[in-house]
Amino acid sequence: MTVLAIGSIPLIMTLGNSMLIPILPKMKSELDLSQFQVSLTITVFSIAAAITIPILGYLSDRLSRKAIILPALFLYGLGGFLAGAAAAWFTKPFFWIVMGRALQGIGAAGTAPIAMALTGDLFKGGAQSKVLGLVEASNGFGKVLSPIVGSLLALISWYAVFWAFPAFCSVSILLTWIFIRENPKKQPPPPLGQYVKGLFSVFKHEGRWLFVTYLAGATGLFTLFGILFYLSDTLEKKYHIDGVIKGLILAIPLLFMMTTAYITGSKIKKKFYLMKSLIIIGLILMTISFATLIFFTKLIPFIAVLVISSVGTGMVLPCLNSFITGSVEKTRRGFVTSLYGSVRFLGVAFGPPVFGWLMEWSRTGMFLSTAGLTFIVAILSLAMIHVKPQSPSSEEIESLFQKLKIHFE
């Protein structure tokens, strides 16, 4: 139940953008909005989250993970309620919808990144990697589920999606409140100056590989959401597929990503050499897939080749999660994982608009430039992620002594 509670947190975050995609055309026509105004409902959410994440990560290190996650989920639900109420009751609701989305973005900042740090706190060794894989799989499951749920809710009303957020958040709040038990802090948090000094030390000694892992995470989400944006546009304009059928087709590559993320997380344990190898292999698979897509225009072969990149993404993301979570001390884990989450959000935010510009420029150029990006990140990962022999952390040593003490008593 603890794992289920942790898994519900990134699932809620993922619904924030993906569940809105099916209703955007209807919202545009109902409220007489421009394409730019419609895109703000996605962009405002992602940017608000990206800005807020490092702040909440720092606070989670100072206070506790639950003390941040629970209010964040409440704000997330409240933002959905505000947007839904404005759409249902106001004659000109757009401003309040954007405000609600900004509030949801602030709430989202306290969900998945803090859940990663919480997993690092509660689980050790192979169990930690397995649960982090489940967290990434839950993230992927949300991406699979959200276009379908959004399409179904749109059959009721285009703004019914907003009302669904408080309901989903209430379930996650209850699971988190009841089933997650954090270890009490044995000593007060360090003063701000000492905390910042420690962070500078982390980035001074680990900065090169942290930069590459952040870049790889952002690249994975940037390409994923960019390609899905392209596929969504192609399904509507070329094949005239919309509604639930469109959501089901968009879910196919996401389903492969989710399944791969779960399997990867369950197998890597704390094998850092294996993690590095899978990161590079995953990025190479993404490169091959994107470069090959220029030769496929028919829908079924296109999706079959696109699935290869989804498998690559599913290999890369759980390994990055384990690298970042397992290599940073608990006292600074919240900030470092949250900064990683912030970078991922920026990847999501910039994917659709950049790919929209590339689509207007050249289809072949779009896929080749994307393949070039993933290939460069693969080379950087090979060169800059250095796996050192792993010595036990202070937390693992303390845990061992506790077990020995209990045994001898």
SSE map:
Elements: H1 2-18, H2 24-31, H3 35-62, H4 65-89, H5 94-108, H6 112-122, H7 125-154, H8 160-179, H9 192-237, H10 243-268, H11 272-292, H12 299-326, H13 330-361, H14 363-384, H15 394-408
Helix pairs in contact: 1-6, 1-7, 1-8, 2-3, 3-4, 3-5, 3-13, 4-5, 4-6, 4-8, 6-7, 6-13, 7-10, 7-12, 9-12, 9-13, 9-14, 10-12, 11-12, 11-14
Explain what the structure shows:
By secondary structure, this protein is an all-alpha fold. The protein has a single domain, classed as Growth Hormone, Chain: A. Helix content is 84%, strand content 0%. It contains 15 helices and no strands. Helix 4 runs antiparallel to helix 6 and helix 11 runs antiparallel to helix 12. The two termini are 30 Å apart. The mean pLDDT is 82.
Which descriptors would you attach to this protein?
single chain; 409 residues; mainly alpha; Growth Hormone, Chain: A
Tell me the domain tally: 1
* Overall morphology: globular
What is the strand content? under 5%
CATH fold name: Growth Hormone, Chain: A
Concise summary:
84% of the residues lie in helices and 0% in strands.
